[in-house]
Amino acid sequence: MNKKNLSLLLLFFCFLTGIAYGQQLDDKHVKIEITVKDGNKPITVQVRSSSVSYSKSANLTAKDSIQKNYYIAIDLERHDINLLTAFAKNKKGLDGQIMMIDTQGKTLPRKIEFKKATLDALTDQFTNDYSSAYLSLNCSGLVIDGINIE
């Protein structure tokens, strides 16, 4: 009787762990990609996470109002050589977009378009079991889901 209870308890525990693990896998159902246009050649890279910010000072002069302050931070598993090369050789900036697509169709896709993005900062992090790469882009224009941000 005791072995039967222990076996049922072990089976129940394995079942619960499988459910919990399955729910963790379910959390990664959003596919994020950045695409930039290097001449006629598109470069597409998988992104782990991304954030967008826009800041406008209240004390702008007419001369300063021309400058736009759009920033995009991108977290990658590792740097893509083609993407880095494109930003390194295009000092005037690259146009592109970030697409977020729910592979299960639970949420609507998101599209962030940017104009004349230049590489503002670059970070690489390495450990013995993990690596991460970050890009910070400064852009002259930003369109989020069809809405021009000014």
What's the number of extended β-strand segments? 9
Helix-strand topology string: HEEEEHEEEEE
Give the percentage of residues in beta strands: over 45%
Regions with pLDDT < 50 over 5+ consecutive residues? Answer: 19-23
Q: What structural category do the secondary elements indicate?
A: alpha+beta
What is the architecture at the second tier of CATH? Answer: Roll
Number of helices: 2
CATH topology: Pnp Oxidase, Chain A
Radius of gyration: 22 Å
Q: Helix fraction?
A: 10-25%
Shape: globular
End-to-end span in angstroms?
A: 72 Å
Quickly name the level 1 CATH class: Mainly Beta
By CATH's scheme, which homologous superfamily applies? Answer: Hcp1-like
| Number of domain modules | 1
Largest beta-sheet characterization: 9 strands, antiparallel
Mean pLDDT: 81
What does this structure look like?
By secondary structure, the chain is α+β, with helices and mostly antiparallel strands. The protein has one domain (29-149): Roll (Pnp Oxidase, Chain A). 23% of the residues lie in helices and 47% in strands. It is built from two helices and nine strands, in the order H-E-E-E-E-H-E-E-E-E-E. It has helices spanning 2-26, 81-89; strands at residues 30-38, 41-47, 49-54, 70-76, 94-102, 110-126, 131-139, 141-144, 147-149. Strands 1, 2, 3, 4, 5, 6, 7, 8 and 9 form a nine-stranded antiparallel β-sheet that branches. Strand 6 (110-126) and strand 7 form a beta hairpin. The longest helix has 25 residues, at 2-26. The chain is globular. It starts with a helix and ends with a strand. 11% of the residues are buried. The model is unreliable at 19-23 (pLDDT under 50).
